[in-house]
Design a protein that fits this description.
alpha+beta, 5-stranded antiparallel sheet, 4 helices
């Protein structure tokens, strides 16, 4: 599918080159020439972008879990020895649900080996690549592609990292992975059985459940909500002030990717 789309882009560019040789000497014809070229190249660019979308060119390994004006969240699964095709991603965050040992084939013939540890997060650059699982086991990860525009990160007066550092830790403090980026703040959330927090706030965020979780949330107006998640599940969480309590008998862990972006107009 990807090769067909790329061939079509090349065909459209050849059509544009033919039009460029026509006689468009009058003002009306000059305007028409510009209009035709703009339409052709805009269409070609759009088709080229689709040709590199991993969900379209490799649906076996990439599945959309959540999508809105700020993020597209992909579930990534590769069996041992499996590889993809060349595709592209915008800037994002990957949360590893399992250990991963991946070789990335890059344009121009270069390659890089990158590893991931289960339960950790890493920033991912805007990049075109072809991944190959060179590990002996299957791996699974959640990839949060950022498509909002960069915005100033508002300082929270009731920041959970300040008010409740026992349960909320910036991921940069958990591992050596760079997570304090201009686009996101990554928090590793850990609650023991029946532990509760204090009232605090979060901006819009993506929550990735590292374990099964059972929480009761007391909201700013006093109402309560029960929210649960299975290990490996992912949800988009709108900005909110709340007090969480782990009502389960097991420890709960969540990777929370707080967004520092304005919603995209797309």
């Amino acid at each position: 599918m990807g090769n067909v789309l790329i061939d079509f882009v090349h065909f459209m560019i050849r059509i544009a080159a033919i039009f460029a040789r026509f006689d468009f000497s009058s003002p009306e014809r000059k305007y028409m020439r510009k209009l035709i070229l703009v339409v052709v190249f805009t269409f070609a660019f759009a088709v080229s972008a689709l040709a590199q979308d991993p969900v379209r060119v490799d649906p076996k390994h990439y599945k959309v879990e959540v999508e809105n004006s700020q993020v597209r969240v992909l579930r990534v699964r590769y069996g041992p020895g499996e590889k993809s095709v060349m595709h592209s991603h915008p800037v994002g965050v990957v949360v590893f649900l399992t250990d991963a040992h991946i070789k990335f084939h890059l344009p121009g013939g270069k390659s890089e080996v990158r590893n991931g540890k289960a339960g950790t997060a890493q920033m991912t650059p805007e990049e075109t690549h072809l991944p190959e699982n060179i590990g002996a086991k299957a791996f699974e990860a959640i990839l949060i592609e950022l498509k909002g525009t960069e915005a100033e990160y508002a300082e929270l007066k009731d920041d959970p990292v300040t008010l409740d550092p026992k349960h909320y830790l910036a991921e940069a403090d958990v591992s050596q992975n760079a997570s304090e980026d201009t686009f996101v703040r990554v928090l590793h959330v850990k609650y023991g059985p029946h532990e509760k927090s204090v009232m605090h706030s979060h901006p819009d965020a993506v929550a990735v459940f590292l374990t099964a979780s059972h929480f009761k949330f007391t909201l700013a107006d006093g109402q309560t909500q029960i929210r649960e998640g299975k290990a490996g599940e992912v949800v988009f969480t709108p900005a909110e002030t709340h007090l969480p309590e782990n009502t389960g008998n097991q420890a709960a862990q969540v990777m929370l990717i707080e967004l520092k972006t304005r919603p995209s107009s797309r």
